[in-house]
Description:
2 domains; 7-stranded mixed sheet; 4-stranded antiparallel sheet; 11 helices
Amino acid sequence: MKRWILLLALLLQSPVWAHKPSDSYLTLRAGSSNNVEIRWDIALRDLDYVLQIDRDDNGDLTWGEVRQRAGDITRLATERLSITAAGKPCNMVSTADLQLDKHSDGTYAVLSLNAQCAVLSAPLKASYSLLFDVDPSHRGLVQWIVPGATGTQAVTQALVFGTESAEQTLALTPVSAWQTLRQYAVDGTWHIWIGYDHILFLLSLLLPAVLVRRAGQWDPAPTLKGAFVEVLKVVTAFTLAHSITLSLAALQIISLPSRLVESVIAASVVIAALNNLRGTIDKKRWVMAFVFGLIHGFGFASVLADLGLPQGALVLALIGFNVGVEVGQLCIVALFLPVAFWLRSSRFYRIGVLTGGSIIVALLAFWWLIQRAFDL
């Protein structure tokens, strides 16, 4: 019991789990005079973590506190981003005062920069290392606009900076739709793997799939086929539901407040986990997966909405991202089902994993719910 309490305490001390992963957003546009214009949005919470901007330590960043550190913020950014053209470094300068902008997950500092190059010719490369030393899961999400691109074709390359992809090539001619599709499929897969609340919701629904409810208790499922059918129902319902709302939100047809979406996602994890203790919803878990999957779709869409891509590129990004999410889910299921079916008859699975694990997940998700609902 002490080990469960210790694990829960460690999880509750990890605030990053309560929110979407750390991302910054860059728009790079090739200018007309051998320069690259840059808009860079960086979360204030990330800047505060690195630079300790909140001087009075009251948890509330004011414009005055941010403005006083504008020089440090710009210096940090220009030290962590570099662009080279034809092998020669471009000179990075600030072109406007620091501003603030609201994203779905909070307030961001907006930097306006200009990379002045001797000549804007291939190979054109960008190197990024903003928060990799303190958060290896941090990413820089980029839209690169090539010379002469306009309208719906303006975004011709979507890039993701990560610890394994800290240097990216900026194409000077439009890239194929396939490349954009592939990039967002990779990003969608990564997003589901680090989306702890989405994973815990799915696993909470899958844990009883290798068991059957009889006389008020859980018994081992008699066949792998039956367990597979239960898993298939849950995953299909969840996939269909979040695909619908992901599409509607990413195409800006429907929009919900971020705090509401994040709070309901946390509540969905609580409900799914507590249901495992009583088995109230047994044979209709796929219904729960569909209903709450609609809300999870809005959560998946937040990263695409924050990118602000034009409609033409957004459709490709949406398709690729959705495919990536499904691939990520299938990988989780492929790992879960054989192990769970093998352990289903043991007390370790029924008491330790199903009961004990569900209690921990419910408590953790309830803490997320408090954080998100009250914006702590």
